[in-house]
Structure formats: structure tokens, C-alpha cells
Fold these 4 entries.
Entry 1:
Amino acid sequence: MSFPRNPRLSRRDFMRMLGVGAASAALPAWLPRVAAQATVNTDLAGDIVIWDRAGDLFQVIDAAIPAFNAIYPNIRVDHQAVETSRLAPTLVAGVNVPDGAFIEDESLGLIQQHLLNITDWMTPHVDNLVAYKVRVGTFDGQIKAIPYDVDPAMLFYRPDILESNGIDVASIATYDDLIGAAVNLKTANSNMKPIHIDTTPALIVLWVSMLANQQNASFINANGELTLESEPFLNIMNFIKNALDQGVGNLSGFASTDDIAACDQGIQCFYPWAIWFNYQIDALLKDSRGLWRATSLPRWTEGGAQTASMGGSSFVIPSGAANPELSWAFYEYMMLSLDGIRAAFGPNDIYPGGITTIIPTYKPAYAEQLMVPPESLGGQDLYGFATSLVDQIPQDYYFPLWFGQLGDILGANVQRMQAGELSPEDVLSISAEEIRSNLMR
């Protein structure tokens, strides 16, 4: 995910972003220096065109280019702010193709035939990367993407509200426990609807995929077969329905005016979401900024995972790139070396405390403190907590080619359940039929 700098950009700018970075050639004194791990060939020379989405992603990568040029002085980077929607038609047309570009992981499958096979370049780095991130960018055994961010899921909550009502967050071990705690809160505070339930179709899909991934499930399996009509997805639908039936689910769209008000006014105090919920806490909340904390997700089953992936993005080199070797040098430095990771994620002029909404895919960076504990979470060590979750993310994670179209089907049918028109079973059966008929033909 990607988020506007605080002070705020518009919500329109935020909703157009889905990848994050931070950059500066100058490193703070407290951040230890370790030599870059990338292979450096200082003889490389030429021009490359790099596309990144406008907003903070573009700003932080742009600010990191001087650090790259300190090592590769003869590579000139023409950095352009371009919406990701332009990438696919450009690749198909084969005209004015960039040397590298940002793209959401969910869209990789749609363009993979136009991407360079970078397996040989990536292989030396694979062991240093989160495994599922490499796999979602691999097609027919060929690696075609450089992983960018990891977005571990967690439960954001208001300890002040819980403590004043005698509830210990450590007692919330399962999703049933979460409903039970919410019921107790509502019994004592009739205006509360403690659990956030999202209403935006595209974000419903992303949230459901997170809750499914936590159960080691995806919309499709490794063979591309639809798995929607299965126990993990029924568990999710039953959880949503139960929360609403008990009167403890607050229906609102992430970062909407109603959602912000519900957080600030203490109407909702449980927010199971990815790390990038901290964007809302930091940039949008007023009365409750600093009062939120993060803990592990409740479990679906005993011994089950307490985190998952929600979102993610990568960088790609088109097969039609004019200077692919130079583009690889750029991305290898930025995403596959400690020096580059510091420039892309650590403290800088745009994010003085470092990025607080994602963590890198490059695991050697987890030994460093790239993120100053954010004031938005009362000084909690979010970076240490988030990086500790990564190895627990279930790896059975697949993006169908039609992921981006699920909002119109699954998202819409979940909305109908929220309105009382469909049962959990109906949501899954109707959505499965529509997916097979309209998306899988």
C-alpha cells in the first residue's frame, strides 16, 4: 500500500496509491551502515525510464536516486510519475515502453507475458526474500518481478477502551473471542459497534483474501481451481454475519468520513487489517491518534496463524525495455541491498521516522530499525512487531487473473449479505457461479 505524506494529501490521492516507499541519500547517525549486497558494475552507463505511481511512492523513489547515482554515476534515471493503468496497454502496444515500472501483485498475471525473465538475476537474492512474494511474481518457473513490500495483517485496537471495560486484549485468542469481547463492550456502551466491517467492494475482496490467507487459503488453489465454496470462506462469511447479527459490526469503508468518525468517537475499537491501517491512524484520525495499538490477529483454529498478507506490489522490467541491464542495476540496488532498502524505507525528509505503513520484502533489513516507533501508536515498536510476523504468513497465496474484477461479484454479494438479503452460504454459491460464468470461461 501507499499513503500520502502527513500532513495530508487528498483522499483521492490516497485511494489511487497502492505501494509505498521512503528515501534519502543521507542516513541518520543512529542507523548502522552495512555495505550493499548487490553486485556493482560501475562501468554501466546509459539512460533508463522508470515509471512509478504519482504520490509518495514517486517522491520517495525520486529522493533515493542520488544514493543510487553515488554508486552508478553513469546511469541517468528519467523518473516519471505514471499511473499503473497505463502499463498494460503500453506493453501490448510496444511503443514508449519504460525500462522499469511499479505494479500491484494482483495485476502481475495479466501482463506477465510482456515482462522480462529475470530468473538468473534474481536467483542469488531469493533466499533473502520473503518466499511467497517471489512466488507471486513467478510464472511457469520464470521470475518476472522484483518484490517491493510486505503487508502483514494484525489487529489494531484501543487499549484505553478495553482497559476501562475490564477487557484484556490477551484474552482475545479466537474470532469467537473477538465477537464476545465486542458484545461485552456494546452491553456496557450501547453506542458502540466495536468491530470494523468494510463496505467498499474492492476492499471487501482484499480483506476477505487476507482472512482467507490466514487460514492458508486463496480464491484459487495451485492448479487454478476456484476454492470459494470451502470452509475457510464460510468461516469468514459467518464471522461477518455473526458480528452484524450481534450488533457489534460497524459498517464503513476504510478511510471514509464515517470510518474516521467511528474510530475517533470510540464507536469501533477493533480493526483487523494490514499494517497500512496505520495510515488512517497517523494521517486522518484526530481525537484517537496515539491511542491505538497493534497485536496479532485472533486465530480461526487452535494453533492457526495469527497474521496474513493483505495487498502487496512489485517492480517489473518489460521485455521490450531498451536498457534492461541498467534497469536491473537500479532495482537490485533499491530493493535487494541494505543500502538501497535504507534509502527506500528508512527515515528521510518525506517520512522523518521512516515508512510506517509497510515493511520491505528484503529480510536482512529486519535486523535493523528502519522505522522509528510511530507516535500514532503511542510509540509502539511497529517495525519490530511487523517483521516478527512475516515468517508466520501462510505461503499458500495465489492471485487469480480476475482478482481485480471480484469487487463487482464477491464484493457486491457481501454487501447484499450486510443488507440482510443473502446468507453466508448464498454469498459463496452465487459468487462462485458468477465467477465461473463471467470470469473463468
Note: Residues 1-36 have pLDDT under 50 and may be disordered.
Entry 2:
Amino acid sequence: MGRAFPLVAILGLGALTGCQLQRPHRPKVVNSYLAEPEDLASVRRIMVLPFAAEAGVLVDRNRVRDAFVTELQKLRRFEVVPLADEAREDDQLNASLAHGRLSTDAIVALCERYALDGLLVGSITSWRAYTPPHLGLRTQLLSVHSGACVWAVDAIYDTADRSTISDLQHYVTHTQRDDGNLHGWEMTMLSPAKFTAYVAHRCVGTWVEG
């Protein structure tokens, strides 16, 4: 019995130490859909329309859209066609999207004018700029050729949630250069622009063709 106590104590200490070890940071699972390869092949020239914001959501919609455009261009998969600042063709489309049904006439008009293969439309479902930041998005890419949605993402990134914090740390570790900033990954939480770019990167990252 005299020899058993130290062994038990050591085992107990080992278990306690193991519980205290930090789990590795990992990507967060994002709700997304990607069509079959044959439906994706013809979607090359696209336009990202100005994002809509759901009722009560106050956010810089242009910042969110620009972040998506930047990430889409990094894929080197699409030719992203800009929408002129004075253009108003997207108004009817966003209005119909807000009512849960896309306007076919609006889609056809846009695609004929700009010779597009697809349109990416998005809605900002939630936003909180102050700590802890929070951004919810719902996006879909519509194919002009099939008339169907070929890519959709529905995601909420809330840094009050542990899974988002782990994902954010993984993102900074694997995609950002170490600039010597003492705040490290927390700097992304302090900057609305950086946080928006992070969420856009994760959403666009769901486009993975087999």
C-alpha cells in the first residue's frame, strides 16, 4: 500500500495536466453547398452584387462586398466583373430577394448587359462591430445557364463562441504573416475590416472543387 500512493498521485497529476493542455486550433464547420462539376464548369464570368442587410442590421455593406470580391479574385477561378457605381439594375433583384423569391427578369437583364455566367447575391444577417465582434452572412451564386444556385454559404461567426475563437486563431496562424504585433490574433477582433476579411476568407474557402 505504501508504494501505491505515489503512483496514484503521479497518475492523477498526469490526468490533470492533460486536461489543462490546450486543444489544437481548428477550422470551424461552415454550412455550404457546392453543385456538381458539370454545373460549375460554365460559371466563369460573375458579378458580386451589393450586399443587402436584414432589418435592423446596421453595417458597412460595401466593406463586406469588397471583402468577398477580394477573396474571390484570390481563387483565380472567376472573372469578377465590376458593377458601375451608378448602376441600379440590382435594386429589383435585391428587392425580390428580400421577399424570398428572386426576380428572373432582373437576373436576365443583368446577365445580358454584362455577358455574365453567374451572379453572387448576399445578405448580412447580423453584425456587431464592437468586442466581441459578430458577423452573419447568407450568400448564393446563381448560374445564368441552368437558372439554379450552384454555390451557397450560410454562416455565423460570433467571437463570443469558442468555436469561432478557435477558428480565428487557426486562420491567423495559417494565413497571416507574423508582423510582430503584440496583440497577435486578437488584433483581428479589434478591427472591423480585419474581422470582415476573415469571415469572407472562410466563406469563400468553402469553394473546393473535387
Note: Residues 4-20 form the longest helix (17 residues).
Entry 3:
Amino acid sequence: MGFKDHFSGHAADYTRYRPTYSPELFAWLAQQAPTHTLVWDCATGNGQAALGLAAHFDAVIATDASDNQIATAHVHPRVRYAVAPAENSGIAAGSVDLITVGQALHWFDFPAFYAEAARVLKPGGVLAAWSYGLMQVSPAVDAAVWRLYEPITGPYWPPERRYVEEQYRSLPFPLDEIAAPAFAMEAEWRLAQLNGYLGTWSAVQRYRKERGVDPLALIADELAAAWGSEQSSRRVRWPLFMRVGRCEAAGRA
């Protein structure tokens, strides 16, 4: 299964509009790791998780199969970026304390990736993967966003999206699982920022390409009425759905 690239064409917007994770998430993940020498942030995108991890680990290797995403990633002295697929990282065997995969595991070749994870992890190393679905703002805003998500762009979502909709519960995860606390992303946004974020959805991008029109225009009036003044800010919240596990038989060459 080759790399399924749904985001390189709008990597700059992805960097600008995607929400960021809470510091508490990375602090908890660091507590699960056997040591704090090296973490691999796989499918790093613009590096948002890599930056949070850098506060807790000596070094971060952040990889993505998209060179466009890596080109727009945020620079940090403890983060080394590289273009590499999830299934073939090029990382030394038995060298990694923690692997993180934010909103990307559902795109991977599962058997090949899990074999690579077992190869690079130290004994007792941890793999943590998470996803997030639709944001929560208010009943009226959420209804407008749902109309964009399902009735309008529903046929344009890749089939792997079902794993996100099922909150990663149905996704294969062959590790000794660790129960994780509830985490969420939060942001204070204006309407323009929400529209920018919605424009990064892969289904919106595909709809635009195939139909030559912008599906955001179909909910623009409803969304604006639900939001209120364009200059007003609202709290936007995305609950995270996590799978975390320890790989005891790790570090195989």
C-alpha cells in the first residue's frame, strides 16, 4: 500500500489552520516512556506534535512522507525532520523511547508499520496514536459543520476515514494497551480561522478539485448566522481518541 497523500497540495494552509495539542498530552506521554532520550513523531505533518515533545525529550526525529509538509514544518533545535514513510523510517533499531502518531495512523499499512515500530522501539518503549473528529463549538455551529461533513462532502472522504469516525476503536493495535486520560485540543477562533480549517479537510479539497466549486459556499450563510459577528471569537474543542501501548518485545533488527 503506497503513501496516500491527501495534504501536500495545501501544506501551507495545514500549517496555518490546524489546531495545536495541549502541553498536558506530551507531559503524560513522557511519563509513559522508559527514558527520555529519543522520540519518533511519525507522520509529523507541520511538526506540531514534535514541538510539544521536544520539551520532554533530548531529541525528536519527525518524519513525514510528504516533502511539502516537511518544508513547512516549524524549526526547533531538538527536532530533526526527515522525509520518510511510516513503514520505513530509517531510524536505528532499538533506539526510540516513544513513537507518536497524531491523526495519521489510519492511513498506514498496518502490518508494515507495526513491524517498523517494533524494530525501532527500545524494550518497554511506547507507541501512542490519536485521532480527532468534528470540533465542538455550539449546537448551531456544529449543525452547519455536520452538514458540510456528511451530506455535502461525505462521498469525498477516503474510506480510511471510518477509523476516525469509530474513534480508533476498530483500528488494529497489537500492543499491550495502556489506559489514557481524556485529552482535547482547544482554540479561540474567529470565523475566518474556522473556515480556513474546514478548507484543509481532504474531502473539501477533493470536492473542489472534482466539481470545480467550493463546498464551503454551501454552508456559508448558515455558518455565519450561527457564529455571529465575524470579529467575535469562540472556543473550539476537539476531543482526542487515543490508543497507547507498550511494546515489550522491541528493538528487533
Note: DSSP finds ten helices and eight strands in the chain.
Entry 4:
Amino acid sequence: MWSRNCLLILVVTLTFVANSSADDDVRFVMKGHSGGATSVAFSPDGKILAAGCNDGSAKLWDLVSGKELRHWQAHDGTYCRVSFSPDGKTLATGCGTKFLGKSDLRIRLWSVPSGKEIGSLTGHQGGVNSIAFSPDGKLLLSGSNPILGGQPGEARLWNLVTLKEIESLKGHKDGVVAVSFSPDGKSFATAEGFFGNGIHVWETATRKEQFAVSGVSEFAFSPDGKELVGLRGNSVVFLNSSTGKENDAIANVDSSTYRMALSKDGKQLAISGKETPTAVWDINKAKQKAVIHDYFRDIVVGLAFSPDGKSLATGSLDTRVTIWDVEKLPKPVKK
């Protein structure tokens, strides 16, 4: 059912070191990252990888040459998050709060070609956990941590033409850990809680909450927008995106799932756990197709598929960002 042949395409930790031969498992190794890699994102054309770091810095890599394009201190904070605009020309970044001292809680917008900051969004009082552009690139959705003093986290909707807040979305009871627009942009969803408190679905035009489903943490919209694919406990659930009704589920995926990523075609799901290996699932067959054993030295907190679904990027608190050839990942061992 699974093969053991693993091809590691690219390993990154922030300074280009060597370009090995095509026959080697590791083609590129970069070193010098001072903190964990907390977020990863492919550009829409799949040619650039962005990485956010635990020290508030961000980095761009050219995936054709393997060369570093840019490295800068995006925020004075921790756990930098990154997200590309649909046209790939803008990168949005946000960060979490530091343990001591004042943190930069703005969402910043950067020109990918020039590296210059082209705008910022101010309003969050808690650290920024999640960022997503609307399909037309005119709106941005963000989620934040709870605020000191007992206030829950919040989601905010922004106008990227005026750089002004449209609305702060209330009703969350914990930090907002994941946000996403539907493929047609007519709705969006926010997931709250570091322990899977629930997912909320909103109408974009009115910002009215359509429904809420408890227990779901990380999630993604299916390519046709008809379903929400999410993590609930040790299961992957498939919810009707109009009603919240559960259509299907894959049970016994992992009891400690932490992050997930859905491929653009909706056929592959990657998940990472706190105590278990990162794995890739075949959604149609409801079977695990690959698993990465004995590689990471810490938790994988960043996951992203390339636009064509052939590569998987992982960001780990062990400081490494790694890009894997999905079809050549080691397949699970039969028990």
C-alpha cells in the first residue's frame, strides 16, 4: 500500500548553503534560522515560498533556483504568519505577542517584487494567529489570540483598498486559530480555540453568522466550496458549508492533530500532530498515503501544499522548513 522511497526536495532554515547533485535526496540545505518556522505559504504560481519565523522575521525563497530572495524583520513579536494575495504580488504578515514588552500587532502588507511595505492594518489587541485574502484580493480576514484581561480572541474583516476595518466579528470564546474565505468569496469561516472549540460560518456581504459547529479547529473549504474539511478530535470531518451538517468523516486519524492543509484539488490532506509523524491522506480513498518518520525534532506548525499538489512544505519549531515530493514520501508500514 505504501513505499519507503523518500525524496526530500528542499530543506530550508534561512541561509543558502549548498546545491547538491540531482541524485541526492536533499537538493538544497539552508542554515542559520535563529527560531522555529511557524508558517509557510506557496505563491499562487508555485515559484516562491514564504516562511514566517518564531522571532517575527519572514523570508522568501525562489523555488526554481533554491536561492533566498529576501529576509527581513517583519514584526517585533513571535510566531510570524504569512499569506500571499491571489495575484502573488502582496504578502501579508502578522505575529503573536511576546512574553515581555510591547508587541507589534499590526498586519503588514509587503510588495513581493520590491520587498517594500505597502500598507498596514491596525486594530487587533491580541496576537494575530491567522490571515487569509478573499479570492478577488480586495478583502483580508484575520484572527487573533485572546486579550489579556480575559477577553476572547476575535476575527476582523478588512478592506484592502482603504486599509480600514470593515467589521470586528464577535461571538468567539477563545483565540481564532484559522480563517478562510469560500472559493466564491460569498462566505468565510473562522475557527476558534486551541482545543477545538468550534467553527463559525459568516456571510461576507452582511457579516451575519450563518451557523456554528462545535469541536472543529483547523479547517479548509473544499475546491467547490460545498464542504468544510476540518479536524475534530481524532477525526477529519466533512461538513456541509451551507448548513454545518456532517456529511462524512474519517475516524482515527490522530489523537493529537495540530495543523492541517488541503491540496488545491481537494484530493490530499496533510496533518501534523504534537506527538505523531506528519502524514498525508488520500481523501477519496479515506486512507493514509504517506508518513514522515524520524525527521522532525519538534512540532510541525506550518503546512502547505504547492498549487499543483506535488509538493508539501512543512515548517517546524526545530527551525527547518522542508519541501517534500509528495509522491516519493515514505508510505506507511502495514501492522
Note: The radius of gyration is 19 Å.
